[in-house]
Amino acid sequence: MGIPVDVRGLRSFLAVAAAGSISRAAETLHIAQPALSLQIRQLEDTLGVALFTRSHRGVSVTAAGQRFEQHARDILKRVDLACEDVRDLVTDPEGRVAIGLPQSMAKILTVPLVRETIRRWPKVRLQVIELSTGYIPNHLLTGHIDIGLTFQANADPGLQFDHLVDEDLVLVAEPGRFGAARRRDVLPAKAIRLRDLSRYPIILPAGEHGLRALIDSHLRANEIDLHVLAEVNAIPELIALAAAGVGCTVLSYASVCAELRKGLLSASRVAEPAMSRPVFLCRSATMPLSVAASAVHELLTEIVSEQIADGSWPARVAMPTGPARSARSRSPSSAAASGRT
């Protein structure tokens, strides 16, 4: 026999947990404090545990209450999604959609994604949240974001990872160092061979950085040593050092696209062989996307494909056309690709 816990009780519980006070929560919910107190007591009696500890300063969530809070949020989100799917048409989606992007992806995708979402679906409240890739899986699992981009697919069964693209890494230097392109945001046709990187003074992230691990894996596979002048983990500082001519660096194209358009840097592809890193589109494997989130999900893949097709993003589409792949089918290089940008 099921436990008689209703949606109203769950919402009341979460309101009290967030407010830390039954009286403040009652004001937020526009109900009388005694009625809210009764709801909480009935919920605790039904569950057979204390969800809050009471004091003259308010209430705080117990250990059992913290676990119940996670379940309550998940249940209510599913209820909201179910209602939204019934209420809204695919042609006119609405609601909040939160997408987590690492810094480099945010630089290349935010403007077209926000602009096109506003144009197509004015009722969608898009939130673009810049996050280090290491934090994105947890934000997906807790429901703080709906979609994310990462450079690694982990083995969490609660997450689904689709191999979206393999993006090129490029050698970056001060303006004018490499040949001119027909447009500032398109790299010169002539590429630098991987083995020739040893001729350039290089500044890279330190060894524990995900991007450095990926670069080192390419170098070891091809028995190449670089002349590393210094190690700097912050990508903006690496860009500043390259722009000032202190040394070259190796970054993803997405990390430097804005500076290339402004003429603050020059960059060249690396070839024979090329260096690239995988980018994964990830989402919850257990929570269905809302109509609005599904629309944004499709728009994101559309924008990526268009940027690759017109040459403005040197990358290769990798997402399969069939069912999405799980983390267990991830790219062999993904373990070294969990850098921050």
Automatic annotation (TrEMBL):
Positions with biased composition (Low complexity): 322-341
Keywords, comma-separated and alphabetical: Activator, DNA-binding, Transcription, Transcription regulation
Domain HTH lysR-type: 5-62
InterPro entries: LysR_HTH_N (IPR000847), LysR_subst-bd (IPR005119), WH-like_DNA-bd_sf (IPR036388), WH_DNA-bd_sf (IPR036390)
Pfam families, per the entry: HTH_1, LysR_substrate
Gene3D superfamilies assigned: 3.40.190.290, Winged helix-like DNA-binding domain superfamily/Winged helix DNA-binding domain
Segments of this protein annotated with the region Disordered: 315-341
Highest taxon, organism lineage: Bacteria
Family assignment from sequence similarity: Belongs to the LysR transcriptional regulatory family.
Protein name in the entry: HTH-type transcriptional regulator CynR
Lineage: Bacteria, Pseudomonadati, Pseudomonadota, Betaproteobacteria, Burkholderiales
